[in-house]
Amino acid sequence: MQKAYINSLYKLLQKDKNVISCLSDSGTDYDEMIAREFPNQVINFGISENNKVAAAAGLASCGKIPFVYTTSAFLAYRSYEFIRDDICLQNYNVKLIGMGSGLSWSTLGPTHHTTEDIAILYTLPNLTILSPCSPKELEQCINYAYNHIGPVYVRMGMSNEKEIYDENYKFVFGKNNVIKEGKDVSIYVTGSIIEEVIEASKKLETNGFSIKIVNVATIKPFDKNSIINEKNKYIVTVEEQNILGGIGSIISSIITENNLNIKLFKIGLNDSFAKGYGTYKEMLKMNNLDGDSIYNIINSILSQ
Amino acid sequence: MNYRKTIFLTAYSASIAHIASAFSIVEILEVLYKEKILKYDVNNPNWDDRDRFILSKGHGSLALYTMLSEVGFFSKDLLKTFSKPNSVLGGEPCIPNIPGVEATTGSLGHGLSLAVGMALAKKIDNKKEKIYVLLGDGECEEGTIWEAVMFAVHYKLDNLIIIVDCNRIQKMGTLKSIMSIDSWKDKFNAFGCEVVEVDGHNTSELKSAFKQKNVNKPLVILADTIKGKGVSIVENDPRWHWRLPNKKELKIFMKELNISEEEINECKKLI
User: Fold this and answer.
1) DSSP calls for chain B
2) What ipTM, to 2 d.p.?
3) Which chain A residue lies closest to B105 (C-alpha atoms)?
């Protein structure tokens, strides 16, 4: 995902001199290379996220289009009030790019995990929230963010995500994307964990179940119609998030508000921080979010 | 023009405001807006080539609103709506509906970072405009102030002028008693800023300070002020951070700010 971001950013820096990459000691060797080519468009703020976020609002007030890039936990949690007051309240054209969302920073533990960003940022007026699941989708989300006038938060994993889409895929803003149709259950999933869902669905299908998978790449505004028009009686949400305030909660509200006859199950962190250390895959397994765990949970739901 | 009288009458009509915080910055704003320090066009508040002023200590809003109406960004009648339903003039300034106001402020420790972003944008574009930001001295207890100062020094933002309203009082007492601040001058110097100290109520000293040369570094003007300046019972008394006078105290306000009974009665009609 990081490589896809750098590629997209590079093209935007070339295309528009008002695009400014704002780092807080959060870049890579690629950023250093880009900085040499675009010295006025790549600014390292040092380890000071709050100053960076508010300064991005100041840059935007003078016509710049800042891409504020850092670990999503530091962005969403540390800088929440700055995102709220300086970017969302003043409705500035700032792009907040949170990298390493979910459990991507697996070995570094809960301070580096981002498992509540949807819950807290979803409540901010004026903020668009995108959550791409693959490099191709990320590139399109970054382009969308650039073209959209107003604040955007893009949360991206960094776990060597495989490409799940072919070259014809087109991200459509505000629309959930049905990866595959199925009649027994609809799995709504956001972000990198989609690979685990695809794995789980293959196993479920060998048991004779028909699984629909829906990729939620636009979290805000949420595609309410995809839930209202849902044909299946069961929805399972899967996310590397606390289930309190994640896409499961958003869908739960839509079901209630529209009096829908749908049974909802939420798979995520059950009001806890993630347990343990290890590779990303090991972290998912320890926290019952890997393909096998997702399979077991949904299999027992469907076997009732 | 008795700006403090206008500030007080506006606050009195609204039944509450931060009058002492507004009183301490009157001369700073007067020099900025009336002595041709700030470049602006009241008929075109969003003029690209304007200088920008950010009131980071947003609770001093009444001084800013008073000055903006004085120079013609909006009518003085608008002040009568301050903090009332449907008014654009809140206790803390919010963009975009107040002509002349450049930033939404209120939560302390934001304005300087907004200002460094603006100053950086102007530098990138090789533009000559300056960015002025007014901080409270109590506000300088916020960590982001120092993040922003480090940044401004590192990026040589000499188009940034930071004014600190050094009234030495915050809500619950003196700065000295709450955070043992010895010298802002030493602190800003240590970070690499150009620092000047002035009497913040002396317009000629302020005017000279704004003309101070600062090459390759931000200019910090430490304005020595009196919180509540202009009304004897308010001056230097932390209890006046967020209150209005009772009947007995009102007499002192009226005498010292030259306010008539009629003017008070007009205010009462607005309450």
Assistant:
1) --HHHHHHHHHHHHT---HHHHHTTHHHHHHHHHTT-S---TT-TT-TT--EEEESSGGGHHHHHHHHHHHTSS-GGGGGGTTSTT-S--SS--SSSSTT------STT-HHHHHHHHHHHHHHTT----EEEEEETGGGGSHHHHHHHHHHHHTT-TTEEEEEEE--EETTEEHHHHH----HHHHHHHHT-EEEEEETT-HHHHHHHHT---SSS-EEEEEE--TTTTSTTTTT-GGGGG----HHHHHHHHHHHT--HHHHHHHHHH-
2) 0.96
3) A85
